[in-house]
Amino acid sequence: MALFCWRSSPAATARAALAAAVVTIAIARAVLPHAAAAAPAPKPPRTAMFLFAVQLSCTAACFESVVVNYSGAGCTGARLFLSLNMFAAACPVPDYRGGRRAVAGGPGSVRTSRRRVPTAVEAWAPDEVVHVSAPAPVPPAAAAVAPPPAGAVDLWGLDRINQAALPLDGNTSTSGCYPAAGAGVHVFVLDSGINAQHAQFAHLGDRLTATVAPGSPFPDGTDELGHGTHVIGTIAGVDTGVAPGVNVTSVKTQGGADDGSLVDLVAGIDAVAGWAAASPTTPVLLSLSLGLSRPPFGPDMLATAVNRAAASGLHTITSAGNGGGDACGATPGWAGAAINVAASDPTDALAPASNSGPCIDVAAPGTDIVSADARNVTALVGRTGTSMAAPHVAGVAALVLGEAAARVTRGELLAAMTDARAVAAGFPLAWANPDRC
Ligand SMILES: [Ca+2]
């Protein structure tokens, strides 16, 4: 496994320099007024972590001034997401008791003297908890299965995605038409990390890297939940994966309790977008088998992040969620730039828990999917959820991009993965069409 450093690119170096400058200015603003203050310090306001989306027309200098203004207005610990023109900071919670006027003057503006002054911030929202998209993310230890004999594992998902229609033919290979197996494509998986020692990943060598979202609390990319390891096994596992030729970076955003932070997730998306912008000839995929309910009111910062990341030339594959309802109510799948995936079963029916509706782009296998088990370096385990469907699509997208050896548009990618003959759960099935070679 290779080491991975987010700060290796010029863009990352620029971000670090800007962050240092902002922190320096913020400290100066924080210290100078206090030096002259003689009165007892007032009770500090209650603070919370907020995400801010700055207008895309706001240049780097403008962005810096916005963050400095917020720092001067009492926000601390700014985390800059420059590839997305977003930032996060711990800020005083606005006083909603003042009614509509107070809400309008919340973190979307900063207080100068006695007035609130609008800034280039176009949207803001508090941090939230993010969950992986599997109904039963942590099976009991007894559910782990021993290494099975070769050929004895039911990899029905791989069987399904190389043929237009049922019945399953027992053939799981795509090498005839997609010999690159995703080589040259870089897939970033933002999830619970990875057990990089698992035998399903041994063939990857330096093509597998493990890291954490910048600024997140995790000391390393170890998978305590088992979810990320399973997802990556479906993308790139030597036996269980759709596209074992890809380059994979596991970006840990979820801990063992599956209580990921939206801010950490956006930090990860920003880092991937920065990487994609610095590697303009590499096809890049972002696989997100996680999410949360779409905010019923106010802005959706996660959808904003996914849509803005697309400007870096990457494609985001999302799980539709497992609420058994309308996928438009879950984020980030409803985001326009996302390729949103519903889960189908071996009969081509919609998986019982899968979300569906007009915000679905494609369907893919998502019930009883066998892949790498993080608890044992040779074991496999079956899991169910749209979390398992999305990596099938990330894998198929990698197969397509590997043969193209170039970036393509979202429309071109969807067209290359779907065909009128292949339908599952009422949606286009994402499949590796053997007639395209
Ligand atoms: Ca087949």
What attributes characterize this protein structure?
alpha/beta, Rossmann fold, 2 domains, 7-stranded parallel sheet, 4-stranded antiparallel sheet, 9 helices, 21 strands
Structural write-up:
The protein is α/β, with parallel strands linked by helices. It folds into two domains: 6-127, no CATH class; 130-436, Rossmann fold. It has nine helices and 21 strands. It has helices spanning 10-36, 60-72, 100-104, 156-160, 227-236, 262-278, 301-309, 386-404, 410-417; strands spanning 47-54, 76-81, 86-92, 109-112, 115-118, 121-126, 129-132, 186-191, 208-212, 247-252, 260-261, 284-288, 290-293, 315-319, 330-331, 338-344, 362-365, 369-372, 380-383, 423-424, 427-428. The strands form six sheets. A seven-stranded parallel beta sheet has the order 9-10-8-12-14-16-17, with helices on both faces. The two termini are 32 Å apart. Bound molecules: calcium ion. The site of calcium ion has 6 residues, from loops.
